[in-house]
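Retro notes - structure team

What went well: the batch runner handled both jobs without manual restarts.
What didn't: labels got mixed up in the shared folder, which is why I'm recording both outputs here explicitly, each with its sequence directly above its tokens.

Job 1
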Amino acid sequence: MRCPVRRFLRMLNAQSRLQDFPSLGDLAYLNTAAESIPPLAVHEALEAYWRDKTLGMRGRDGHFAAVEQCREVAARFLCLPTAEVSFCSCSSEAYNLLATALQLKSDDEVVVSDLDFPAGATPWLRAATPPQSRLWKARDGELHSADLSALLGPKTALVQVSLVSFYNGHRLDWQAFHQVVSQLAPQALIAVDITQALGRIPIDCPGADILISSTHKWTLGIHGGCVVGVPAARANRLTTRAGGWYHLSNAFDADRFERAASREGAASYSVGMPSFAALYALNASLRYLEGIGLSAIAAHADPLVQQLDEGLRALGLEPMCPRHAQRPSGIVAFRHAQSAMMHQALQEAGVEVMHHAGRIRLAVHGYNQPSCVQRALKALAGSL
């Protein structure tokens, strides 16, 4: 399965990018890790959805065609066959559906990290019969596979990780991580939140049992969607036990009140009518990104991330995660006692970032320019 390749550079050109992202204007938008700015192609896709919707039942031909087109391109980004990719409404729904599939018991163990987003870490705490939750703690902003070893064993049923952390931009050393899990807990399933990676870096997670991503961040889509990838080898084990209809093979058969037969694997996560608008949008945004190519985005944006990291250090602001040239991500974050004042200075300079509980997070995508980084650093320098 071939992954996206470079075709054109509209997103990365200081002038022509404004044709596709006119709302950026003079804004230095460094907040894609929270919300993306969709290209006009997404607007056009939503108009196509609206036109199809106004046809009533006849519009479903267009709706379901868009779903399959979206599945096709999403599968290429996940480097999975099309049949192993499906959709639900958000990552929280996907993880809760995963919990129904696993049916973990009180003596099972689940490993999560303190760099995970709550969607992947909390369903195990809310279960009717909670499994034992074990926490993989970061040191100096990084998850070290050596620290994971003590948490794994014959009772480990699931290891949940984020390929890129929403919290500080840490990018998991997948090979080292997977090797440790394979050696010490070979029976454990591995769930990977790729929300802060999909659309920005390659999804290269051989051995992952389920991949989950929301659609309104680096993919440049909108709310209401989630991509779920389940390799065929794990389809039976990871089939949800949820009710519904869209994922059932006998939803309208004569025996529908006697049994509910689910489709297996990824298809079982689409329990109800798809969020068509979100998938029209995602189909357009992923094809837009595919036309540029992740390698071209990285070649443009990764140096800006490095400049941002170095600029923060020059100001005496310590990024929360070390930069690794071999494992770059789009996120840089730092903490400071005067973060509220710094955030205000950034806003006044027309720089949009995420500020929460003393932490400022900056995110760099392909539509950012050197001027975005320069304005952010200048505003921060002025606030010190």
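Job 2
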Amino acid sequence: MILLVDGHPYHYEMENLCRVFLPYEEIKTVYEKKADTPESETVVYTGIEQQDGQLRLSVRLHMGGQMEKSEQTVPLSVLDEEKEAERLLAVMLFELFAQRCGYRPKWGILTGVRPIKLLRRLAEQMGLEQAIQHFQSGFLVTPQKTKLSAITMDNEQTILCRSRAESYSLYVSIPFCPTRCAYCSFVSQSVDKAVRLMPEYVDLLCKELICTAQVAEELGLNLESVYIGGGTPTTLSPEQLRQLLSTVCTYFPVLSCREFTVEAGRPDTVTPERLQVLKEFGVTRISINPQTMNDNVLENIGRRHTTEQTISAFRLARSMGFDNINMDLIAGLPGDTVSSYRNTLKQVLLLDPESVTVHTLALKRSSRLNQSERDGFSPDAGGASQMLDETAEKLFAAGFEPYYLYRQSRMVGNLENTGWAKPGYYSDYNVYIMDETHTILACGAGAVSKIKDPNSDTLRRIFNFKFPYEYVSRHEEMILRKKQVKELYELFRE
């Protein structure tokens, strides 16, 4: 499709909104008002011009051989209100698409990752009641999603209020998995291909951790949470896990932080030996992530484990004393139906984990599912939406609460990912990373440190090399980048 942008700088938001309704079409953005376009092409025109002392907003949608248009005249003072002209233009475009496509996405015109931050900012500006009303009338979010957002915002506040100016969290990346899932776009390598690289990777990762700990100590920072993710950290051997966790526990004050999470992730990597290492070093929270409890769906997405292995891994962890276990699920997977997803939810609730994180399938550009396996798979937005509705109903009834929420591009149905937990079992790290509350020091391939100015909303990023082989071959360069952390804090303190 072609997006014509005329007289305004809001091309990014207009592109994202077009993707809400046409998620799999390539968008060509042009800035010539009269650009020639084929008759069969989907064309969106968005324009703003000053006329007779007012502002004229225009939107046109040419789709399927039909033309729809909308115009609105507003005072010039709209330009003085932050993002108000952009919002009005987005509402007009949304309404044309909704009329033409016959459905209204539940998050309205919102396309950003962090809707809870937006609702909180609105509540601070205009009060909660008016913010909720504006969320629905101004951004076209449904009452159902607005209620979910308000509850989530209230719940995560219990964690946000614990963060201080000197707070930080630690993230450690283990970019290896037993296999690569069809939907995955993360920088991770299958163990079959990377096994020779793993010992050196762990050695160098420990060196980076030691360097990072020294920087944090010199800056007088206070550790709030530790999260070891990936990838699948439990693809490491028990010996490699012991080496990694020993380094973390020796150089970081983990005994005084509130959360120490390790993603056990794939059930087929959960063994007594690995779990024993996690217990030995005081890990307080683990994830055992089935994604689905239907074997045919597991096969569709390229997972080698079975539902029975998930159940066995969970019971093993329970028997070894793990009393804070999370399970990840994905709504909208290939071959899954509302009925089979219902079975997944039932089996997970029977296991009785402390938290359940429910994702919506996102068809990322670099995923195998998007690149080579779309034939025969048609994403079911309506089905995914019903899955999330039933999830909320069942989890609320079982005593779970939503405590963090975020969204991704190219999600089926433009829906959301939500972390649910029983009271007292929220993951601090998940809230801090999503809200960008304080500094996240990140180590390992593909990791991104986010350095937060304690006196403002300013956030600076320091990127590690993406791929494990780069991380190994250019490690000294990356260690030098960690010194930028101190430089940024010195800049913030000026």
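One thing worth noting from job 2: The chain has 17 helices and 18 strands.
We'll revisit the folder naming next retro.
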